[in-house]
Design goal:
The structure holds 2 protein chains of 2 kinds.
Chain A: H1 2-5, H2 9-45, H3 76-86, H4 97-113, E1 123-124, E2 127-128, H5 137-145, H6 148-158, H7 162-185, H8 187-193, H9 198-208, H10 223-250, H11 262-265, H12 275-300, H13 316-341, H14 349-377
Chain B: H1 12-15, H2 18-37, E1 63-65, H3 80-84, E2 90-96, E3 108-116, H4 125-129, E4 135-137, E5 152-153, H5 155-162
Classes of the chains: A mainly alpha, B alpha+beta.
């Protein structure tokens, strides 16, 4: 009894509330509306209109008229979800059943798991808006995010079919070649800040300006501090570019969507999947996009901070505003993801490998040495 | 003799791709901006907007049969349309007019006249070939049915769609 009472129930309950809240109230709706945004933005870019007429088909249920909702297609994700759940869930006879069922879960889970360490707000009613404020923050993200490849590899292997297999082989080699650049490109940040904890990284950016836009700290930093940030600025921009492009490759987005290249591999690793199992791959991909965008926001764009807006210690309202700012930045990055997808064509496989191994790996490595050199000459 | 196509010499900007990536991104965002401002011409939103009010004069819709101003059917069952119809959509069974009719000596009439709208290609040759100007392509384009039988327009349906057309050909009305 004493053992139960001595547990930190406040911590447990708030963590539970944050976990459920962020998954069911923020991330899953955000995933489904990212899919909707993807279809809508792609349509607008291609001079089409896109899904704009989702209504309630009440006439199917025996009513006289359909219910026309003036939502302009915002009901599309709901309709999609209903469709996915009601579709036949086919398991082909030639697959390895156990791994075939395991793979969709492995694709979805790591993408959501990484959100545990990402601070999505300052404090709300005194509770820090991060589920697990661990000191190894970024390492945890990389460790879990690289597990995402297992979902794809196992899906491709267990499907026992050529196209999925080729897709998964491509995916694993792609992930390996970009994981290196991804890891190395953020090392300069840790050289500057000296911490892996993502909340501390945001605190540093509030004091010294966002790493990508050092001018956000223009009014409360001294000239020497600003000069120091400005010397580091170009190298941070290189870091940002390499990191962002690696995130594109890591989440299998165009121009790096070789694992599911429709023109060559039918649908890549999820060719044999249908219904909700396919939807899990789909959701996993978009959840990974959201995680990747959150990571970019935390590392380079100041997280939940916006110049002039105080943090949650000034009242619950500002706590909410901070959460809003964070997800606003994430949404802006998601738009960039979609925008790039509908602009650039897919890379050829050898071009992809050359970009990963010859360019980004070297650029990230040299960037580390230059940043270290600058920090040795001009210490904080 | 083998001829080697010379490779174009790329400048540094072309080699690193970045300028062309940025110009590509600008092109797509401009399309997005123009769509949002409504400056792009987009296709007609069919069920809400329809073409009906401004169909062009030459529009070829469903072929129909017409009656003249005396409510007499114009078709004399000459079967020219049946023979010219490229997809063979028209079937006519000609019949003799009753003996008491004053046109019995000069005309036949179609006992059955069917146009299979699944076959029809809306070419308008039947209208062109008809010597009595009895068959016209009207402007109905939404021809729907839930079975093959329903898509075959019989005489009743054809006259219903065609209606009355006066003038043009006077047949034997004035010559008697």
């Amino acid at each position: 009894m004493d053992a139960i009472l001595s547990l930190d129930w406040f911590l447990i309950l708030t963590s539970l509330a944050k976990t459920l809240g962020i998954i069911f109230l923020i991330v899953l709706p955000m995933v489904s509306y990212t899919v909707y945004a993807e279809r809508r933005v792609s349509a607008l870019i291609q001079d089409r209109i896109g899904p704009n007429r989702v209504n309630m088909p009440l006439s199917l249920l025996g009513f006289k008229k359909d219910l026309v909702l003036p939502l302009g297609g915002l009901g599309q994700p709901v309709a999609d979800a209903v469709k996915f759940i009601l579709k036949e869930d086919l398991t082909p006879a030639h697959v390895n059943k156990f791994y075939y069922w395991l793979a969709p879960c492995l694709a979805m889970v790591p993408a959501i798991l990484t959100l545990a360490v990402i601070p999505f707000g300052s404090t709300f009613l005194g509770v820090p808006m991060v589920i697990a404020n661990v000191n190894i923050g970024v390492l945890f993200v990389f460790a879990i995010a690289s597990l995402g490849v297992y979902g794809i590899v196992i899906a491709g292997w267990s499907s026992n079919s050529k196209y999925p297999f080729l897709g998964s082989v491509r995916s694993s080699s792609q992930m390996i070649s970009y994981e290196l650049a991804l890891g190395l490109s953020v090392v300069p940040i840790f050289l500057i800040i000296g911490k892996l904890n993502l909340s501390e990284i945001i605190q540093y950016q509030i004091r010294h300006g966002w790493l990508l836009f050092p001018f956000t700290a223009f009014f409360h930093s001294t000239w020497s501090e600003l000069a120091h940030q400005l010397i580091l600025w170009p190298w941070m921009i290189i870091s940002f570019v390499v990191f962002t492009i690696s995130i594109f490759a890591e989440t299998n987005r165009l121009p790096f969507d070789l694992p599911e290249a429709e023109t060559e591999l039918v649908a890549g690793y999820h060719t044999e999947y249908s219904s909700m199992k396919f939807a899990l791959f789909f959701l996993g991909e978009y959840a990974a996009m959201i995680t990747g965008s959150s990571l970019i926001v935390v590392l380079f764009l100041g997280g939940w901070h916006f110049p002039g807006i105080p943090d949650g210690s000034r009242g619950w309202f500002f706590g909410l505003v901070n959460i809003g700012v964070f997800f606003g930045k994430v949404a802006a990055l998601l738009f960039v993801f979609i925008w790039v997808r509908w602009t650039l064509p897919r890379f050829r496989y050898d071009q992809l490998m050359r970009l990963g191994w010859i360019w980004f790996f070297e650029i990230a490595l040299v960037n580390i040495f230059i940043t270290a050199g600058i920090l040795a000459i001009f210490p904080n | 003799m083998a001829y080697t196509v010379p490779r174009p010499k790329l400048t540094f900007a072309e080699k690193i791709y970045l300028p062309s990536i940025i110009s590509g991104l600008l092109i797509t965002i401009n399309h997005l901006r123009k769509m949002l401002r409504g400056q792009t011409h987009i296709a007609m939103q069919y069920p809400e907007e329809k073409w009906d009010t401004h169909l062009p004069e030459h529009y070829r819709g469903a072929p129909t049969l017409v009656k003249d101003e005396h409510d007499r059917e114009r078709c004399v069952a000459c079967q020219l349309c049946e023979f010219i119809c490229p997809p063979r959509a028209i079937t006519i069974k000609p019949g003799e007019l009753p003996a008491e009719s004053k046109f019995a000596k000069v005309e036949k009439f179609p006992k059955e006249f069917e146009i299979d709208m699944i076959r029809c290609i809306y070419c308008g040759l039947c209208e062109e070939v008809c010597p009595e100007q009895a068959i016209f392509l009207r402007k109905d384009y939404a021809i729907v049915g839930t079975s093959r039988a329903e898509m075959v327009h019989d005489k009743k349906k054809l006259y219903e769609l065609g209606g009355v057309m006066d003038g043009l050909v006077f047949k034997w009305n004035e010559k008697k």
